[in-house]
Amino acid sequence: MIHNPVIDAMMARKSIRKYTDQKLSDEIIETIVRAGQQAPFAAQLCSLILTRNEKIPFGAPLLFTICVDYYRLEKIMQKRNWKTVTNDLSLLVFGMQDASLMGENMVIAAESLGLGSCYLGGVPYVAGKLAEKYKLPKHVFPLVQLVIGYPDENPPLRPRYPIDFTMFEDEYPEISEEKMAEAIKVMDDGYQSQGYYKNLDAKIPLEVKKEETFDYSNYGWTEHMGRKWGQWFGSPRDLLAEFEKCGFYLTKENKPE
Ligand SMILES: Cc1cc2nc3c(=O)[nH]c(=O)nc-3n(C[C@H](O)[C@H](O)[C@H](O)COP(=O)(O)O)c2cc1C
Question: ∠ CA(12), CA(50), CA(11), 5° rounding?
Fold first, then answer.
């Protein structure tokens, strides 16, 4: 693999869940946000709310709420005498693309400045509450949050699937049992050997009828994933309601005239 300062910063990044009290200067914040803005975009369908005057998860000095934002472009279009015909689902998908790319540029910029970061992904499920708190106009949806600060821990890198379980040339292959076993092993051994879930005390309890055969000595990433996606978020209803609170109507039936 080739090394240079950019690649090295990307390869050294890991989520940080403990921060020192040190504040970030306005210059650092501006640098991170400018780097975020410079990400490629479909239509700049994203904006940020910066929070630094309240208690923030992991003791971080600041928190960005990264939003899908069609509000500003809609206003600009009105000025140009254009009415939106694009459906809300499409706007949301393009907005998620833009917001995600901006967020990750910010993460890499922060890493290159010796800072740590961690995303918080539960936001869409409390979008309505956040919209009230931050006075978000309609067509602004809080997608994900990002804490940034000076790290007060130095955890090991977390594993990833093998590259041949991720990149497929020309067409999607049959995934062999062997490749699957290899991927499972890399992920489970990697998380287990660093006591990841034990340190976070993050084992998800069983909610379905299944015998409990896991404790922190054998609970790994694949079991964690199983318990998340095998037990939670069954109905799309709650999430659809949160989108609607933010003015995104994903089903035609519910859309007000
Ligand atoms: C969209 C998204 C949401 C996330 N949400 C959370 C979260 O709510 N809490 C948390 O502690 N980590 C969260 N993470 C961090 C992941 O757990 C972490 O990126 C993953 O375990 C890989 O570890 P690494 O970032 O250290 O390589 C989130 C990451 C992403 C990309």
Answer: 10
Ligand 1 centre and the CA of 187: distance in Å?
A: 15
63 Cα–ligand 1 center, Å: 15
What pLDDT shows up at residue 151?
98
What is the set of domains in the chain, with CATH numbers? Answer: 5-154+235-254 (3.40.109.10), 163-229 (no CATH)
Q: What is the residue with the minimal CA distance to atom 8 of ligand 1?
A: 120
Write down the pLDDT at residue 253: 67
Please report the DSSP string for 82-148 in residue order: ----S-HHHHHHHHHHHHHHHHHHHHHHHHHTT-EEEEE--GGGGHHHHHHHTTPPTTEEEEEEEEE
Mean pLDDT of the chain, nearest integer: 96
Ligand 1 site-directed mutation target among 10, 14, 15, 56, most atoms within 8 Å of CB: 15
CA atoms within 13 A on the CB side of 121: 3
What's the confidence (pLDDT) of residue 256? 74
Report, as an integer, the average pLDDT of 40-57: 97
Query: What lines the ligand 1 site, CB under 6 Å?
Result: 14-15, 17, 118-122, 144, 158
In tens, the pLDDT along 130-177 reads 999 999 999 999 999 999 999 999 999 999 999 999 999 999 999 999
Compute the distance from residue 40 Cα to the ligand 1 centre, in Å.
22
SS3 250: coil
Tell me the two tokens of residue 181: 């076993």
Q: Is the pLDDT of residue 254 over 80?
A: no
Q: Does the pLDDT at position 116 exceed 70? A: yes
Q: Ligand 1 mean position to 119 CA, how many Å? A: 5
